[in-house]
């Protein structure tokens, strides 16, 4: 039986295919052509802005690059439009790489500003270069040919436009449901978690920026051969902003939001362009005002855009469990019990004049659970972040399995077998528990974006889901694997983070205040899971504020106060220590 989830896209595809054969007025075919072209560009923005959290106002310039490349090459040099498409894509990738290289390492507003500058300058270039026909542009662009058929009418190029648009949508949705897709979806919540899972966040930012640019350039190429002429006006900053409108109004969270947004904006814009000047009694682009107001309203009342409201009618079922017989992922050689695993040697961190961690040393041997405790502000989290590479050391060193890791990026430390959770849970709230945990298997798998888009990664995906399910079983959460992570209570969310860390196949598990904010019952469940992991031979470093929680659980405790190691010993030693009592009583009660 086909579900409504499957029937809807098939019906939409069938309708798209027969429409030009029906007596539909030419006007609507033209509208649909524009919607397909616009949707491709806003699809790139869904990937870039909605999923990856990066904003670009310069997509119209990439459309222009694709359009002008084919216009120049086909009219001035007689080069085939298909070859010109290849050249356009190469130029686009080169321009996108340069922009990405310059801006993506910087945080904040550099990318939006750089894309505005890029959009303005390219548009200026188009409008002022003799060679590009200045503001008149280039006319006489030949029609496209496919298998000897000339696509010289709206109804014939329609098929090519929509073939590209549908293929792009399928490629992007395949990408989002894959190993690189999970890494891309992790970008939006900041880079720390993704890096801790071994993801090079810079690389994926570049990947989505380049992909979005390619989608825009292909749309521009189709546009040029559909219009048969180009001029600078559709590639300016106004359209750059309009593409963002489309993505936001339709819904930046998913592929079909791009199509919804393109359709709504194109159709409403046309109507407004005829109605508003009549109402106002003057000519002008009054629709911009309406769009501005609409955008504010959408952001206020439907921040996820219009598509999620439509998608409610087609609820997705749980992911079919087809990984039952998938072979296990490869695992690393395990340290032998008692082997020196982590050697923290006089690590120091200064923030300006404040010494947050003052030459702290301790060791962890394989099979131990060590607790790092101390009152608020003692420097526990900073020490933890120094070990995991989130912060750089002022001085001192960290050795892991005999190898110096101090100063390495956190993703390189993760690669060596340290895996962590976070004091404030970091997850992808709109992904299922299973998918969140599968992100932990990132470093144990290899498929890249191209394989994912072509769906060549399914065997590896099965192995990843099988591993994620195994880790969820290990912590007793297999029953919740299909739930959205954001819908879980804090206790299960913290356990899910532990399963995600276990999915990396760690030699050492680092837990940052795992019991913080948990209710008594949830703390008990967590302690039970940690005891069981210890029973299985897992080595754990636990940063914890709650003394009672660590007492019954750890082999050894390192107590910090004011950035310095106060004492190290068994829980009994620590409990009996007058200094520790003073530290806790003095600062807390
Ligand atoms: N990025 C930073 N810049 C400046 N000071 C910082 C920074 N991070 C931490 N500190 C300071 O370093 C000291 C140690 O902080 P840290 O968060 O490591 O303590 P903690 O023991 O983990 O405390 P808590 O239990 O409250 O998390 C504090 O005085 C804190 O204000």
Automatic annotation (TrEMBL):
One cellular component term from this protein's GO annotations in UniProt: plasma membrane
GO molecular function: ATP binding; ATP hydrolysis activity; branched-chain amino acid transmembrane transporter activity
Residues that span the membrane, as ranges: 85-103, 157-176, 206-224, 244-267, 279-302
Residues covered by the ABC transporter domain: 342-587
Protein's name in the database: Amino acid/amide ABC transporter membrane protein 2 (HAAT family) /amino acid/amide ABC transporter ATP-binding protein 1 (HAAT family)
Gene3D superfamilies xref list: P-loop containing nucleotide triphosphate hydrolases (3.40.50.300)
UniProt topology in membrane: Multi-pass membrane protein
Compartments, record wording: Cell membrane
PANTHER family (UniProt xref): ABC TRANSPORTER ATP-BINDING PROTEIN, CONSERVED COMPONENT OF ABC TRANSPORTER FOR NATURAL AMINO ACIDS-RELATED
A Pfam family it matches: BCA_ABC_TP_C
Keyword annotations from UniProtKB, A to Z: ATP-binding, Cell membrane, Membrane, Nucleotide-binding, Transmembrane, Transmembrane helix, Transport
The organism's place on the tree of life at top rank: Bacteria
PROSITE patterns: ABC_TRANSPORTER_2 (PS50893)
């Amino acid at each position: 039986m086909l579900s409504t989830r499957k029937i809807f896209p098939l019906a939409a595809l069938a309708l798209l295919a027969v429409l030009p054969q029906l007596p539909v007025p030419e006007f609507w075919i033209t509208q649909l052509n524009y919607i397909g072209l616009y949707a491709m560009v806003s699809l790139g923005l869904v990937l870039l802005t909605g999923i990856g959290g990066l904003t670009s106002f310069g997509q119209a310039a990439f459309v222009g690059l694709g359009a002008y490349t084919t216009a120049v090459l086909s009219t001035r040099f007689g080069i085939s439009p298909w070859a010109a498409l290849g050249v356009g894509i190469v130029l686009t990738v080169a321009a996108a790489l340069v922009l990405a290289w310059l801006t993506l390492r910087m945080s904040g507003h550099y990318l939006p500003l750089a894309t505005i500058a890029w959009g303005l300058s390219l548009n200026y270039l188009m409008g002022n270069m003799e060679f590009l026909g200045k503001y008149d542009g280039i006319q006489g662009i030949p029609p496209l040919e496919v298998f000897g058929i000339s696509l010289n009418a709206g109804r014939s190029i329609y098929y090519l436009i929509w073939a590209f648009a549908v293929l792009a949508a399928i490629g992007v949705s395949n990408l989002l449901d894959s190993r690189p897709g999970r890494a891309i979806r992790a970008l939006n919540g900041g880079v720390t978690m993704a890096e801790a899972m071994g993801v090079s966040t810079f690389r994926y930012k570049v990947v989505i920026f380049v992909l979005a640019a390619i989608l825009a350039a292909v749309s521009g190429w189709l546009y040029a051969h559909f219009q048969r002429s180009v001029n600078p006006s559709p590639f300016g900053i106004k359209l750059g902003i309009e593409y963002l409108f489309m993505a936001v109004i339709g819904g930046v969270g998913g592929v079909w939001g791009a199509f919804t947004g393109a359709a709504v904006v194109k159709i409403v814009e046309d109507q407004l362009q005829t109605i508003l000047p009549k109402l106002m009694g003057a000519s002008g682009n009054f629709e911009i005002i309406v769009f501005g107001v609409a955008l504010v309203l959408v952001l206020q009342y439907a921040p996820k855009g219009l598509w999620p409201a439509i998608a409610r009618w087609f609820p997705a079922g749980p992911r079919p469990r087809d990984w039952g017989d998938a072979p296990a992922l490869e695992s690393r050689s395990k340290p032998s019990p008692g082997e020196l695993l982590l050697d923290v040697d006089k690590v120091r961190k200064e923030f300006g004049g404040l010494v947050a961690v003052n030459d702290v040393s301790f060791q962890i041997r394989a099979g131990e659970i060590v607790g790092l405790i101390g009152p608020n502000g003692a420097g526990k989290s900073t020490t933890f972040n120094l070990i995991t590479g989130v912060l750089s050391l002022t001085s001192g060193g960290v050795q892991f399995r005999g190898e110096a890791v101090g100063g390495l990026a956190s993703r390189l430390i993760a690669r060596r077998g340290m895996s962590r959770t976070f004091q404030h849970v970091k997850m992808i709230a709109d992904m299922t528990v299973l998918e969140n945990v599968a992100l932990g298997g990132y470093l144990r798998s290899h498929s890249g974006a191209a394989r994912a888009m072509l769906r060549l990664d399914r065997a590896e995906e099965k192995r990843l889901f099988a591993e994620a399910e195994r880790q969820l079983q290990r912590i007793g959460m297999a029953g919740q694997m299909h739930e959205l992570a954001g819908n879980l209570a804090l206790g299960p969310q913290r356990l899910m983070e532990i399963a995600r860390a276990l999915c990396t196949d760690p030699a050492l598990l680092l837990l940052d205040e795992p019991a913080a904010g948990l209710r008594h019952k949830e703390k008990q469940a967590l302690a039970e899971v940690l005891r069981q992991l210890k029973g299985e031979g897992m080595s754990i470093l636990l940063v914890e504020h709650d003394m009672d929680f660590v007492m019954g659980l750890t082999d050894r405790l390192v107590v910090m106060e004011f950035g310095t190691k106060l004492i190290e010993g068994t829980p009994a030693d620590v409990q009996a220590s007058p200094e520790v009592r003073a530290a806790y009583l003095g600062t807390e009660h």
